[in-house]
Amino acid sequence: MAYRETPAVRARLDAARTRLVEEATAVVAEVGWAGASVGVVAAAAGMSAGSVYQHFPSKSALAVEVFRRAAGREVEVLGAVLGGSGGDAATRLARGVEVFARRALESRGLAHALLAAPADEAVGTERLEFRRRYRALFADVVREGTEAGLLPPQDPEVTAAALTGAVGEVLVDPLAAPGSPAAADALLCELTALALRCAGAPPTRRTEPGRRP
Amino acid sequence: MAYRETPAVRARLDAARTRLVEEATAVVAEVGWAGASVGVVAAAAGMSAGSVYQHFPSKSALAVEVFRRAAGREVEVLGAVLGGSGGDAATRLARGVEVFARRALESRGLAHALLAAPADEAVGTERLEFRRRYRALFADVVREGTEAGLLPPQDPEVTAAALTGAVGEVLVDPLAAPGSPAAADALLCELTALALRCAGAPPTRRTEPGRRP
DNA sequence: CAAAGGTCTGAATGGTGGTTCACTTCTTTC
DNA sequence: GAAAGAAGTGAACCACCATTCAGACCTTTG
After folding, report:
1. Which chain A residues are Cβ-neighbours of B203 within 8 angstroms?
2. Which of A46, B47, B118, B210 is 20 to 30 A (C-alpha) from A17?
3. Which residues of chain B between 65 and 94 are close to nucleic strand C, CB under 7 A?
4. Do B162 and A166 touch (CB under 8 A)?
5. Which nucleotides of D are covered by protein (CB under 7 A)?
6. CATH topology of domain B1-56
7. Predicted confidence band at A208 (pLDDT cuts at 50, 70, 90)?
8. What's the gap between Cα A199 and its chain centre?
């Protein structure tokens, strides 16, 4: 025996793998799944096409990891807002939609990749799961609201699906690209108001979503 | 000179072209855009792969025509319901959503192809336009409602986008496949109620969507 | 430093599927 | 029926990637 993996080597490999995933994410956000060939992604990460296969068994596996990382972060953030203790169900719902939308607006490319861009089958499956989780988060809050009598009776799953669909639709359409920060704020405002109406929350005046105290 | 196209020939050619488009639509509804290769589609239409190119300059062009035909029909139907004279804006809105959703439920494959299935770039562009038209139809009704004071102030475009997104999201997810006709009716009911809440219509009791007098 | 066992490369391989084209098979006209 | 043109065919062509692999290059150990 004359060679064993040393911590330094392990670290270098891990770093390379991480870099690969990160650069692949950037490429996907930029040009979509279709344009992210193994060659392009490898070049972006500063390695050869062949080397990709030392980190992942296939392009699909890499794509799935890229998706999971990015989507997982989003679910986590949304979960924290919706599940937190910042006000009643309706308030958290509004804040959740705002966060969802704001993050998507801030990186439209990634949002598009996660929500809508054509992708291969493996990523498509992953996407369904992702939407399901998003929906479950929204549905929980809606359910809480109806049980507390704050929201009218409704199927929480349908409402939750509508919320993700609505935000996705508004954001993904290139027409909806707000030119100015003010326009973005207005859009967020409309979206939160819409979300509250969707869930049937009574139309009271609420804090402006974009305001910072 | 010794040959000129005769009406009979023209008719045969047109019929072949129509058949090609129709069969291609069926194939796409069945297996999605990805699975609809030129060979498969040609076989379904009873012609050879080469013959497809006598009717269309490229596969993309055929795909676009398939999309336009199917989507155009949907837009037309929805437009008739929303723009018709059957009640106030809110009622027509609810009926429009119901029609949209019912038709999608009745041919899920096609709905999926039109709304969500991965497609090549040309079809993707067409899809954006299609959604835009859908949105414009809904937006008009919402605008009418707000101007009549029936609906609260809101950005009609955002509400309209939400409606298409919501219906799409609910319908396209395989989980939402209703097993029984009763479940489908319940889903439609939830959807119309949701749509009315989305637009901010006052929560009065309305006619059951599925009822026939 | 030499041996052993990695990592890394990039050209070759292979599968897929749109597109073309030389050829066959009609249709029409004279 | 023969010539003039289409229409129709399907095998061959080609572009495009994902994937592999033989060899080059590194790192570690004794």
Report:
1. 152, 200
2. B118
3. none
4. yes
5. 2-12, 16-22, 27-30
6. Arc Repressor Mutant, subunit A (1.10.10)
7. very low
8. 21
Which segments in chain B show pLDDT lower than 50? 207-213
Domain boundaries, chain B: 1-56, 61-205
Phi, psi of A7 (to 5 degrees): -50, -40
pLDDT in tens, A128-180: 999 999 999 999 999 999 999 999 999 999 999 999 999 998 887 766 677 78
What are the residues with a C-beta under 7 Å from any atom of nucleic chain D?
A: A 1-4, 6, 8-9, 37-39, 49-50, 53, 58-60; B 1-3, 5, 9, 12-13, 16, 47-51, 54
pTM reported for the whole predicted model: 0.90
At B62-88, the pLDDT tens digits run 999 999 999 999 999 999 999 988 889
Residue type, A78: L
What confidence category does residue A203 fall into, taking pLDDT thresholds of 50, 70 and 90?
confident
pLDDT of residue A9: 79
Tokens of B156: 């009609």
Do the first three CATH levels of A1-56 and A61-205 match, i.e. the same topology?
no
Distance (Å, rounded) from C-alpha B28 to C-alpha B35?
Answer: 7
Burial A78-103 (b: 16+ CB within 10 A, else e): bbebbeeeeeebbbbbbbbbbbbbbb
For domain B61-205, say whether CATH 3.60.150.10 is its number: no
* For testing contact with chain B, the best of A133, A194, A204, A206 (most B CBs within 10 A): A194
